[in-house]
Structure formats: structure tokens, C-alpha cells
Write a structure and sequence with these properties.
alpha+beta, 2,3-Dihydroxybiphenyl 1,2-Dioxygenase, domain 1, Glutaredoxin, Glutathione S-transferase Yfyf (Class Pi), Chain A, domain 2, four-stranded mixed beta sheet
């Protein structure tokens, strides 16, 4: 497993008097105050890159009792990846019998921290912040130091079109919290494709990605989803054991078996009905069998591969969103309908489904 940590992000110190401490660090170390929270008596100070290289927490009357820490509050580690990576790290603590001391959020949920102690009683934190909060923080740092506000180019370029196959990748990127840029690839004869599409996809198929941070180019939706999950240590692809095997089994099943049948269902049953009766019957049987298997599975558990969402759910959901193209009434599959609605209400699924940002929405069906 690729470890998600690259460096310590910031240090936090307890202080007796916030005003005096801020004066010390700004005058002696030349730092600048980026953010200050009077209600919580906290200040974030920066040397010019991070939101808070040093963060000061006023302890007041509690300070004397906590002096055995010599003013040290905690060291904070922000992993690569999104909120799902934080969940994985929480599970790692539990699996290793490390007590979680506290889970705290602030700034309207933009920052979530998980606090724990090492064997020598030093306080540590794993934390996650929303991409919008991180961007806002970088802009604040730039303004404080009189620099141009950063314009960051996302590492991932996604070459896609708003088909179910393309939306697998955009939904995965949203769920994992990976910044990305969509390069539309119109489909159909005579449609002009972006030049870099040939670099991104060896087969010429969508979706495809270019990871500009590593130079990796990749096509085939299943491979893309696995790459992104491993890049971010996402719990959508468990790292080991039967949970990983189950997730891969279901990902390969929906990508290689169910989805080709559903794509043919759209072609024969929705776009060209009555033109090829034998093919329509064969495709209809395959599609119905796929929905039946999914229904039987979801009557036994919350998600396709177990009790937690995996890449298989991300991959399959945009196809079920177009169930009417397959000649399927989702009301005939109540467990699938309940699963579909739960994911449809997830903001990451909604944003990923709107791949071109033109307001496209998935149907929210009644149960």
C-alpha cells in the first residue's frame, strides 16, 4: 500500500496568552497571522506557504496543569486523499488498538481532525480539509505575503463525455476528493477530438486520464478507478484481505459483464427498437439477469461488495441512473432502488454525474 503521508503539516502549541504569543512569533520569527478565531482563542501563523506552520491555542487556567507537555499541544498530519482516507486512518488506529481521544470539526465542517496519542503520550492528529477550504487558505496566505493568489492546475485531466462509462471516472474523482479538469471528448462520426486524447488513451476510448504529477496515462474505466483509489489510499478499494477481493470481484463483474449488456440494451431497446428482434430478446434477457443479480445482492447487504461503499458501487450507479434505457422499471427492484437513491443524494455523485457542468441531474426516483 502506498502510504498517504509526505510530511508533517504543522505544529500546535499551548500558550498562556494568545496576544503575547502572536506578538512573539510575528516579531521574532517574521511570521504572519493568516487566521484568528477569537471565540476559540486560536491563531494560525505562516512562513508563506502553509495556512498555519504554527498554530497557537490559548489554554488560560488549564495551562499550568498541562506544563508536563512543555507547551506542546500536538503535531498534525494531513494525508493525501479526501475524507475517505481519513476514515481509513481511523480504522487503522482502531485495528492497532490506539485509542481515538477526540474527533473535532470546525469552520462549518471544512476541517475534521482525529486526535490520538503515541506511546510516549505525545498528542497527534490526522486531519482532512475540504478542497474549497484548502484553496481559500492558499489565497489567504498569498494575500498576507503580498503575492499573486495561486491558480492551481489540477493534476488529473479527465477525457470523457457524459455517458455512464465516462461518469464512472468523474464520480470516483468527486468521491475521493481529487481535483481534476474535464476535457470533453464528443462522441460520434466526424466529431473533433482534443489533440491530447491520443496521448491519454491508447485505445482511443473514453474515459481516459493523464496524471500530470506522475506522467501516467490510462484508459479503461476499471483501470482508472483502481489507479485513483490506490493513488489516494481510498477505502473504496480496501488495501488487503477478503474485503479487497470482494470489491475487485464486483468491480470486474459490473465493468466486464453487466455494463456491456446495458450498453447493448440502450442501443437495441432504446435507440433502435423493433429493428433486430432476436438481438433485442437476447440483450433484454442479459440486462434483466444483471438487474436480478444486483437486486438479490442488495437485499442481503447495503452495498454490492459488503457493508461499505466500494469502487463497484461508484462504477455501477451511473448505469442504473439510465435504467429506462434498458427497458427496466426500477420499482420492480426495491433494494436496488433504495441503494440508488442513497447514492443519488450524495453530493459527490450528483456533481460527478454533471460531468460537463451544464446542470445535468440524475433522476431522484420515488420509493
Amino acid at each position: 500500500m502506498v502510504e498517504p503521508f509526505k510530511s508533517t503539516n504543522h505544529m500546535v502549541f499551548n500558550v498562556k496568552n494568545l496576544d503575547a504569543a502572536v506578538a512573539f512569533y510575528t516579531q521574532i520569527l517574521g511570521m504572519k497571522v493568516i487566521m484568528r478565531f477569537e471565540d476559540r482563542r486560536m491563531a494560525f501563523l505562516s512562513f508563506g506557504k502553509n495556512l498555519g506552520d504554527i498554530r497557537l491555542f490559548e489554554q488560560g487556567a488549564q495551562y499550568a496543569a498541562d506544563r508536563h507537555h512543555h507547551g506542546f499541544n500536538h503535531a498534525a498530519f494531513m494525508p493525501d486523499g479526501g475524507a475517505d482516507t481519513l476514515e481509513m486512518l481511523k480504522q487503522r488506529l482502531t485495528d492497532n488498538d490506539v485509542e481515538i481521544e477526540a474527533i473535532e470539526t470546525f469552520a462549518g465542517g471544512a476541517h475534521t481532525g482525529v486526535y490520538f496519542r503515541d506511546p510516549d503520550n505525545n498528542r497527534l492528529e490526522f486531519y482532512w480539509e475540504t478542497p474549497a477550504w484548502v484553496d481559500s487558505a492558499r489565497a489567504k496566505v498569498a494575500r498576507a505575503f503580498g503575492e499573486a493568489e495561486p491558480v492551481e492546475t489540477p493534476e488529473i485531466e479527465l477525457y470523457a463525455w457524459p455517458t455512464s462509462n465516462g461518469q464512472k471516472a468523474s464520480i470516483a474523482l468527486e468521491v475521493m476528493g481529487i481535483p481534476y479538469r474535464v476535457i470533453p471528448v464528443p462522441l460520434g462520426p466526424g466529431k473533433e477530438r482534443p489533440e491530447a486524447m491520443a496521448e491519454a488513451s491508447e485505445t482511443g476510448k473514453i474515459p481516459a486520464i493523464i496524471d500530470r504529477s506522475t506522467g501516467t496515462t490510462l484508459c479503461e474505466s476499471g483501470a482508472i478507478l483502481m489507479y485513483l483509489a490506490e493513488k489516494t489510499n481510498s477505502p473504496l478499494l480496501p488495501s488487503w484481505g477478503t474485503a479487497r477481493s470482494a470489491a475487485l470481484q464486483w468491480l470486474f463483474t459490473v465493468v466486464s459483464t453487466f455494463h456491456p449488456a446495458m450498453s447493448e440494451g440502450r442501443f437495441y431497446l432504446h435507440m433502435n427498437p423493433g429493428k433486430a428482434p432476436l438481438a433485442e430478446k437476447r440483450v433484454s434477457n442479459s440486462v434483466t439477469r444483471a438487474y436480478r443479480i444486483v437486486e438479490e445482492t442488495l437485499t442481503k447487504r447495503a452495498f454490492l461488495a459488503g457493508d461499505a461503499m466500494t469502487l463497484a458501487d461508484v462504477a455501477h450507479w451511473p448505469y442504473v441512473a439510465r435504467h429506462d434505457f434498458h427497458g427496466i422499471a426500477l420499482s420492480d427492484y426495491p433494494a436496488t432502488l433504495a441503494w440508488y437513491r442513497r447514492l443519488a443524494e450524495n453530493p459527490a455523485f450528483a456533481k460527478g454525474f454533471d460531468l460537463l457542468g451544464d446542470g445535468t441531474t440524475a433522476p431522484l426516483l420515488e420509493q
